Amino acid sequence: MKALALLSGGLDSALAVKVIREQGIDVLALHFYTGFCITERKRRMDVLAEDDPRRYKNDALATARSMGVPVEVLDISQEYIRMVTKPKHGYGANANPCIDCRVFMLRSAAEHLEEFGASFIITGEVLNQRPMSQRRPTLGIIEKEAGLDRLVLRPLSAKLLPVTIPEERGWVDRERLLAIEGRSRKPQIELAARYGITGFAQPAGGCCFLADETYAERFHELLAHKPDRELTQDEVMLLGAGRHFRLTDSVKVIVGRDRLENNLLARYKSGRIFLTCTVVGSPSVLIDGPADDVAIETAAGILARYSDAGQGLSIPIVVENGGPSRTIHVTANKTFDLDPLRV
User: Fold this and answer.
1) What pTM value is reported for the model?
2) What is the Cα gyration radius of the chain?
């Protein structure tokens, strides 16, 4: 008997895998790359070597490795973005479409059941831990919309939920499953200590950009300027970087806040206008959209505002726009009021 596990790298999903493996069931973990994971974005931005201990790690891969569980990483980002912009069940407090997210991931996992020879799917969901997607009625709606009615086993709360097919058919012993409920982490922490599980990622959606208030504001602001509500993978990545300023309906300026963000903006300069200054410490600036000379001058002024140049000092700014670069000179105005433009 084999099961597919949705493995986030957090404690709950790791515990779910452990509970099921204790019953002699082979578990293959699936980890989905959605494009909205904060830690994974930092890892992909990192310039440190892969084996450098200071480098950001992929929590799911690290957890699977520590438990000796095989894991498949599936990139669903392109399809996931389309779902996020038009969720059937709407958003949570920020831009998190939690119900649609679970449906999407379970449906994606279901497509691989036959491929991996698995009979059912397990998750680390805990009843009533999250108000939008983990209430009893919602759990049933999610698995039905995913085409997995009674084939999703939630080992941590199974005794509080209806009997699933794996339990009914004796594949899994229901008596050895758990009855954890609510937002408290105490039962999971105690269980982790018993199993010797350490180094797990922190819970409560801390890795998802869509649950972040600042990111959500930028996300909804960008969608408001997209009549078709379609976003590209580049736009999704850039939403989580730098300071954002809206110049017109179609033009936005992104200002790097540190070296890593400056490097990230440089990676996305193809097809966009990119501004830098090397004579003083300064951020890099990316202009997204069809900017005219006025917009470029404004973006250069924003760069100067955040540079180390003193008030009134004229600095050269290099403008790259696909062809030969050019240099413009801008006077640093440290009193430049950016609040009306800030996203």
Assistant:
1) 0.87
2) 24
Tens digit of each residue's pLDDT (9 = 90 or more) over 284-331:
999 999 999 999 999 999 999 999 999 999 999 999 998 899 999 999
Q: What is the pLDDT of residues 52-75, one digit of tens each?
A: 666 667 778 888 888 899 999 999
- CATH 3.40.50.620 in the chain is located at 2-209
> Across the strands, what pairs with 4?
28, 121
Question: CB atoms < 10 A from the CB of 159, how many?
Answer: 17
CB 116 within 8 A of CB 28: yes
Cα 8 vs. chain centroid, distance in angstroms? 11
CA–CA distance, 184 with 157 (Å, rounded to integer): 13
Give domain 2-209's CATH superfamily: HUPs (3.40.50.620)
User: In whole angstroms, what is the distance from residue 338 CA to residue 341 CA?
Assistant: 5
Helix (H, G, I), strand (E, B) or coil at 270: coil
